[in-house]
Amino acid sequence: MTDEQSKEEKEDSQALKKMFDSWTETLNWIQNRTPGIPAIGPAAGLARNSVTINAELAQATQSLAEFNKYLAQYYAKISASWMEATKKVLAECPADISDEKARERLKDVWIETFEQEFTTLFDSEDFAEIFGQMLKSEVKFNKHVRNLVEILSTNIGMPTRSEMDSVYKEIEGIKNKLKEISDNIRDLSKETRKETARASG
Amino acid sequence: MMQASEYAKTLGDVEVGTTPADIVHQGRKLRLLHYKPMVEKTHPVPLLVVYALINRYYALDLQPDRSWVRNLLKQGFDIYLIDWGSAEPIDRYLSFDDYVNRYIDTFVDMVRDASGQERISIHGYCMGGTMSVMYATLHGEKVKNLYVTAPVIDVEKDTTVLGNLSKHIDADLLVNNFGNIPPEFMYLCFTILKPFKQGVNKYIEFAKHVDDKDFVENFMRIEKWLYDTPAIAGETFRQWIKDIYQKNLLVKNEMKIGGKLVDLRKIDMPLLNVVAEDDHLVSPECSVPLNYHVSSEDKTLKVYPTGHIGLLASTYSQKHILPEIGAWLKERSYNHAEK
Q: What is the pTM of this model?
């Protein structure tokens, strides 16, 4: 193959790549836009935000999977402690529990042993880590669902949680300003009272 | 057992917080209560009670014969109390700055105006104790005596399950997502505290005494209080977990609220710190260090063999704790000229 042939082939392949890239780009654009062209309202919004919606759904699913993973670990820890406590109670269980006193003692041993076993578990770094992660993945799932609702609310012109939060923040700022002003008024009237008393006395 | 079914019908009606009080201030959710005196002449310096943001204020007045409020009223104190109510969505940005520098400060001024006293006594319980400590560092000129019960101070030394779990909570994620922290989250945390002694045994005891009217009523009052947990304002929860439980900034004198440093060394008024040996919510090791970090010369630490709620609403408290607290407070509730 001559140098010229090789150069031509390279140029062809670049042109081909360019064509495919542009085609892919157009397809992506169409995929996102087509459903939106004739639609007004929610459907237009859904089409415009389909990529974000899909991403949120995927992340929500991932968070749910994570939550299930930690939930399984959580219950594994609980079961292990339950088994351990049960073993200890059985070891201390009186042979005859036919009378009231023996049953009462067994109950006390049961409560005390389970309490100790579970408090040790809940006090452990390991359990706290799993608990924290479980909570985190649950809240993350909630967050993605909330993001989806925000998108849908925006599309149909409803106020969103973020918008409400910004209003709350604004109100909080105004309240603080009011407290500052009323404190100043209070101080000023005190001063005025003192001045008046001084002038008249 | 026949009677038990009759009691069951009235369970929703258990009365709590029955000590007569005037509502001095009524906000959208906040209330400032002023209890009606039970003696002819009260001690001149009034006492403002700052309850926690978790659970409700009526722990101090669950039932007449075990009422913290009633006991101190009978000892001649003029008592005001802040009922925080429940945080609503609009309150999500309320921080310690708002609670301490806005609300508590406003109420302190109201009590000062009403009583004609330049400085008043403040009592804070649990988280309310921590808020009272913050207040005393920033507005010490208005506080004559500081009395705290089980305050959260040095969390590194805390040995409770709550302290352990709090270190692994992503507070930012929770607050950014929920806004206010819903009561359900608090229940989740409470259910793993003493799960068998309190979670199982108390119901066994309840079943045993189901035909005892007094027992059933007492039981229901405590249950009502336990499950009447309000939502907590988001920003406050964020600071509570991150600054206090995770970074332990309060005891290091590095915590800031509203841009102002909370420096425990600025506390120089008489201090009474009351803790419980068997406290499973705030361990004594967490509360006691307050006395080592303040500048007060007149400081007292009292440790009692009871639990978190036992400090307030128990027969033990009525017989042993409140008489001692009343004596401490009475001695410091007069100005020199009034003695």
A: 0.84
